[in-house]
Each structure stands twice: as structure tokens, then as C-alpha cells.
Amino acid sequence: MVSAGSRWQTCSRRKEDAKKPHIKKPLNAFMLYMREERPKVVARCKVKESATIKPNLGQRWHSLTKEEQAKYYELARKERLLHSKLYPGWSARDNYVSTATCRHRVCCCETDRSNRSPSADAQCVWCVCVCAG
């Protein structure tokens, strides 16, 4: 009989993907603005909750003139260029492939048939890895 703790094994493809470093997307103009302005808003409002701060920052962003926003768009462009030099073949899709390809797990009774009991067939109906490889 298989113990409850060892019943499930993660898919080998997911283990390989977990070893890859997670590369973040470069920040856009608004995110750069938020990073710079958030401490000022927190100090002024004395509130740290993101749900309170973000609408305030959004209103402030929209109230900026095009020239004031241009500063952040230029910073975002520079950050994108630097990011593309550091990670030439990178795509934002690379961050999501590992979870999208295999969300299922492999049941240990599928890999080790000696542990299989007559009731295991009923329990293992959904224990199939869809990556096929």
C-alpha cells in the first residue's frame, strides 16, 4: 500500500522547468512611475494598502502632461533595450510555458505497477500526465 505522502509524484518536465531562472519582463512607463511615486504617496496618505494607493497613483499618472509622461516612456524604452541585450532570445511566453504545459501530476501507481491494488483503478482515473513525454 502506498502512503498518502508519497501518492503523487510531480511530472519530470515540470522539475526540469523549475531549474530555469525566472526572468521578469521589463517595466513599462507606468510601472516605473509607480516605483518612483509610491513612497511619496505612502508618506502623504499614511496608508500602505495597495488597493488604496494604486487608484491614487493612476489618477496622478493621468493628470501628468505628455511631456512629464515622456520621461517615463523614455526610461521604459531604455529598460526594454537593456533587457533585450541581457536576454536576447527571451520572450514573455517563456515564463508561462512550464505551468501551461503540465498542470497534472503522475500517480505513483502508474509508474510502479507492483503497488497497484484492485481499488487503485477507481482512484487513478484522473492521474494521467497530459504532457506525453
CATH class categorisation of the largest domain? Mainly Alpha
Terminal Cα span: 27 Å
- Oligomerization state of this entry? single chain
CA radius of gyration: 24 Å
Question: Which percent range describes the beta-strand content?
Answer: under 5%
The share of residues in helices is 40-55%
Instruction: State the order of secondary-structure elements, H for helix, E for strand.
Output: EHHHHHEHH
What is the CATH fold-level name of the largest domain? DNA Binding (I), subunit A
| Alpha-beta content class | mainly alpha
Number of domains: 2
Please count the helical segments.
Answer: 7
Mean pLDDT: 75
Cα shape: flat
CATH level-two architecture of the largest domain:
Orthogonal Bundle
Protein name: Transcription factor 7-like 1-A
Task: Write up this protein.
The chain is mainly α and 133 residues long. It is 54% helix and 3% strand. The chain folds into 2 domains: 1-23 and 104-133, no CATH class; 24-89, High mobility group box domain (DNA Binding (I), subunit A, Orthogonal Bundle), CATH 1.10.30. The chain is built from 7 helices and 2 strands, in the order E-H-H-H-H-H-E-H-H. A two-stranded antiparallel ribbon has the order 1-2. Helix 2 (29-45) packs across helix 4. The chain is flat and about 45 Å long. It comes from Nibea albiflora (Yellow drum). This is Transcription factor 7-like 1-A.
